[in-house]
Amino acid sequence: MAGGATTAEHGERQQDTSGPPRRSGLLGRLGPRRPHAALVLALALLLLAGGALWLLYGSRWTHVERVSVSGTGVLTQAQVREAAEVPVGEPLVSVDTDAIESRLLRKLPRIDSVEVTRSWPHGIVLKVVERTPVLIVESTGNGGKYVEVDAKGVRFATVSEALRGVPVLELALSRTGSQAASLRRFGGDRLVREAVRVAGELPNAVARAVRTVKVGSYDSVSLELGDGRTVEWGSGERGGAKARALTALMKAAPGARHFDVSVPTAPASSGS
């Protein structure tokens, strides 16, 4: 008995010869199945991706069915839709919104800006901002029509009649003398922008009464009001100071017929 193995030692030898220890419980049951679980997960993700692609490109559920337009005033919604050329029936996700925006700005100059967005699952939304005319220019050689000019100096549309409440821009530019030099130096477009700049600086009460803005040169812009009074404004520079001087001058001399604020620190009035 003394030289024989004990029961405990016999059990240890049995464990030593049985190889790596076996996993037990939940860990043992899940271990051999890990490759199978990964395969199932990969197949599920593949099916999900395929389903998403089908939903976006193949399914009729996400194709363009309608085009909504907002913000129009002079333009009609039909005009905007026609110029936009939205590909109705195509997958919504593949619509090139930048191309639609470019087409609208190119085909309809009256549009100042436009926002093109997708409205899931079936729509394209066109939010339009139209240009607002601040001056109109009589179009020479075009049957007495007028060209609308916005606050950026952009000539964007031709109309058959002068718009009520919008001053007429008269370019009284001589081809000789100082006026010719001004025209050569600044160009007609720059002089138009100066007239727009002056119109934007006018006091509200005066702006509503202006009938004509005359531009003789860069330094010679004058105004004719609806009641026959006139204002010598000068250049478009120091517009804020000139507006304040004109407001004060009109209050101080309400019966005057002519006002000169070309030098705002020394305004003058005349006539009665």
Describe the structure.
This protein is of the alpha/beta class and 272 residues long. The chain has 2 domains: 60-130, membrane protein fhac (Ubiquitin-like (UB roll), Roll); 133-270, Rossmann fold (3-Layer(aba) Sandwich). Helices cover 39% and strands 25% of the residues. It is built from 8 helices and 12 strands. It has helices spanning 7-16, 25-30, 34-58, 77-84, 97-107, 177-201, 204-209, 239-252, and strands at 66-70, 111-119, 123-130, 133-138, 146-150, 155-159, 168-171, 210-217, 220-225, 230-234, 258-260, 268-270. The strands form 2 sheets. Strands 6-5-4-7-8-9-10-11-12 form a 9-stranded mixed beta sheet. A 3-stranded mixed beta sheet has the order 1-3-2. It is elongated. It starts with 6 loop residues before the first helix and ends with a strand.
How is the topology of this model organized?
Blueprint: H1 7-16, H2 25-30, H3 34-58, E1 66-70, H4 77-84, H5 97-107, E2 111-119, E3 123-130, E4 133-138, E5 146-150, E6 155-159, E7 168-171, H6 177-201, H7 204-209, E8 210-217, E9 220-225, E10 230-234, H8 239-252, E11 258-260, E12 268-270
Parallel strand pairs: 1-3, 4-7, 7-8, 10-11
Antiparallel strand pairs: 2-3, 4-5, 5-6, 8-9, 9-10, 11-12
